[in-house]
Amino acid sequence: MRYTEKDGKIILSGLDSFDISQILECGQCFRFEKLGEKEYKIIAMGRALYIKQNADMAELYPCSLSDYENIWRNYFDMDTDYEAIKNKVSVNDDIMQKAVEYGGGIRLLNQEPYECLISFIISQNNNIPRIKGIISRMSEKYGTEADGEFMFPTLEQLADVSEEELFSLRMGFRARYIRDCLDRLISGSVSLERAKKLPTDELLSMLLQIKGVGQKVADCVMLFSLGRREVFPTDVWVKRVMETLYFGGEETDIKKIHAFAKDKWGEMAGYAQQYLFYYARSLKIGTERKDK
Fold it and tell me: Whole-structure pTM over 0.70, yes or no?
């Protein structure tokens, strides 16, 4: 892959394992808007970015060489060899081979941990349009305007916002969880800076202190913003998919699914989860299953 700067744009060429639609539509982030075929607006890292892809080429704008090298290169995980990952997770696995062929352009984003944490708390028992709406209203009311968009509000900007004010953004019961999360971040009992240095099991324990944060939300935050590629986020839907594809349709405990993922994919379980999630959701695999 090569990149050059031209007229306020970064031109990426020779792209490999990169499909912007698959990257943004696989459930790992929320602040994006589809503008056309493989054309999106992304609000992340305190900036608004437009990206338009055509086959193995893409334009990122407004974007300087410095912006790309210091922000977006890492955000899109451009230095990771995804071909090697796909080969490794799919070896001797016909199911995963189909999944990586279907969603082979997925890359795991390296999101800002604080925004990722708040966003996935909001995502609980929620759908994508509502999640986007809540985040947008919160950003418009408390965030800073930049690049013609309202950025995600900082911890300082939300520090004195009451639970009632959060509730008024139509986030429902999640307002209580968000307020508890903010309080813990302010007090330091949950520290995202310290999180980067903790073993994964200790990091999980710390995140589970937050009201309303269960393992699925914690795993998403660890996978999508804290580099823990070994975790395997499993909600009810992913559980059904795993039962359908790997457990013969039998009801299976989540702990058993996690043990299976750890044994089968090890440090790459998070990549495997995203390929399976995108593949199964797109083809509606497992939707015919009914809980017993």
Answer: yes
What fold, for 236-283? Endonuclease Iii, domain 2 (1.10.1670)
pLDDT of residue 292: 43
Question: Omega before 233 cis (within 30°)?
Answer: no
Sign of the CA dihedral running 129, 130, 135, 141: positive
The rounded distance, in Å, linking the Cα atoms of 53 and 39 is 6
Fold annotation for 2-79: TATA-Binding Protein (3.30.310)
Hey, where are the domains in the chain? 2-79, 113-225, 236-283
Is residue 290 scored above 80 in pLDDT?
no
pLDDT band per the 50, 70, 90 thresholds, residue 289? low
Q: CB neighbours (10 Å) of residue 193?
A: 8
> Given a cut of 90, is residue 144 above it in pLDDT?
yes
**Half-sphere exposure in the Cβ direction for 231 (13 Å, CA):** 23
